[in-house]
Amino acid sequence: MTMDLEPFKKLIKQRCGLILEGLGEEKLATVLAQRLIVTKFGNSAEYYFHLQESSDEFQDLVNLLTINETYFFREIEQLHLLTERLVPRLLMQREDSQPLRILSAGCSSGEEPFSLVMALCEKYGDDVSSLFSFIGGDIDTQALAKARSGCYNEFSFRGVATEIKARYFDHDGWAYRLKDKIRNRVEFLEMNLFAEEFPAALHGCDIIFFRNVSIYFDTPTRRIIQQNLASLLKNTGYLVIGTAETIANDLGVLSLIEEDGLFYFSKGQISAPVPAGVPVFDFSRYVPSTVAVAEQSYIAELPSVQCSPPVVPSLPPEECVAPLVEPSNPCFSIEEVQQYCCEKRYDEAMALIAMLLEQKPGEASLLLLRAHIQFNRKEFEQAEASARQALETDPWSIDAFVLLGLAAKWRDLVKEAVSWFKQAVYARHECWLARYYLADLYRAGGESDKARREYRGVLQLLSLEAVPDHGIKVLPLAVVHSELRFLCEHQLGKLGDQQRIARRN
């Protein structure tokens, strides 16, 4: 007998804001079946009434539903932002000797807050104990218990340099245990982001990290959560959201700032730049040398402080065929799915995608192709949901950013459309296709200077002897270079005429 999931979905969303659709709904069904066996209730209706009355059982259910995907020094460029910009600025501003309060909201099993501690230890040494206090908050009590233990296996150390692991961890059989001087720095507290009130210990934060969590909430819920987090910040505080989420979370609650090519939110006005003479932390020591070089090159080519993107009209999508991508796993016929998409045999493609996702749920390429089909069927909300699922696996997916931009346009979500295209350019400066979309949006919105800048940028990239890879690997959204160059030149000519007419008038 099929279980009615709707009452459970509504109760969970009401209490903690969590949206359970698609794969989340499938996980809910599995977890509910497990809990019915454990609690020995005869049917789901009896269990539902018990769930409403028992806070302990609700907590056990939530523990099983939360996704604890995290690892040490994730998105290391944001740690660089913390140590080189945010912290020095706040230390300069403070009017007393109270330590800066740093909160990791949605901290899961603790890798993020401990990474913050280690990053600041590398820069400030033993002064960390007097300069900072750290809190980790999460709704999952089992994850918090693991965080307090400070014990991790190899899976938590993806891309971490051996030197850092040796400095801050003791090898304990199959696991690595944090040294007490790091483990004892963080206080872990139960935290429901959707709560109406928060413990006093969570208030008065200088910096809040809230990364790779907002993707599990819809927009109204994200706005409420961001308002809650803003209430926990001091007036000079900062909110740092995951790199793939930040622009989409520009909800008017806090001011969006771009600095050193990275986005974050500020509760007050951004202060003066960090003065010369502040020691620079070499973040490359955290990761193997090949990773560090790539990170440094990426940060070096990004722009300096800028304002939020403007509101501009939208742009219709372009339909073309891109080269097929070889499957990453021989048991997945991704190439076959792509061929069906290119031939617009969408029913056959969707059937194959459904079958393949059963073998490997969360495969980003399959989710993106499903989103592409949904987009072309004008199922824009479903396309957005599929693309967001793909970002959970690959948070730097240019395909997802571009598709989300197009889907937002067709839903008349103009600001979001511009934000997603900007995110694609932010993630890959050479993404000339996203820059072309931005140019047309700026032109249609009367932002002539910005439109000219982007059109010229596209022309410059397409004029190179070897045209740079735009970063779109899966979706059939490519265009013919010569046609795109013609369109850019044509629009630049029109913008030039408009500029001359404006000057005469």
Could you list some keywords that capture this structure?
Rossmann fold, 3-stranded antiparallel beta sheet, Chemotaxis Receptor Methyltransferase Cher, domain 1, 505 residues, 10 strands, single chain, alpha/beta, Serine Threonine Protein Phosphatase 5, Tetratricopeptide repeat, 3 domains
- Into how many domains do the coordinates divide? 3
The strand order across the widest sheet is 6-2-1-7-8-10-9
Q: Which overall shape is indicated by the principal axes computed on the Cα atoms?
A: globular
CATH architecture of the largest domain: 3-Layer(aba) Sandwich
CATH class of the largest domain: Alpha Beta
Report the major sheet: 7 strands, mixed
The CATH topology of the largest domain turns out to be Rossmann fold
Count of runs of 4 or more consecutive helical residues: 21
Mean pLDDT: 80
User: How many beta-strand runs?
Assistant: 10
Strand content: 5-15%
Which consecutive residue ranges, at least 5 long each, have pLDDT under 50?
Answer: 275-279, 288-332
Q: How big is the Rg?
A: 24 Å
C-alpha termini separation: 74 Å
Describe the structure.
It is built from 21 helices and ten strands. By secondary structure, it is of the alpha/beta class. The chain has three domains: 6-65, Chemotaxis receptor methyltransferase CheR, N-terminal domain (Chemotaxis Receptor Methyltransferase Cher, domain 1), CATH 1.10.155.10; 76-300, Vaccinia Virus protein VP39 (Rossmann fold); 334-504, Alpha Horseshoe (Serine Threonine Protein Phosphatase 5, Tetratricopeptide repeat), CATH 1.25.40.10. The strands form two sheets. The protein has a seven-stranded mixed beta sheet with strand order 6-2-1-7-8-10-9. It has a three-stranded antiparallel beta sheet with strand order 3-5-4. Helix 16 packs antiparallel against helix 17 (398-410) and helix 19 runs antiparallel to helix 20 (448-462).
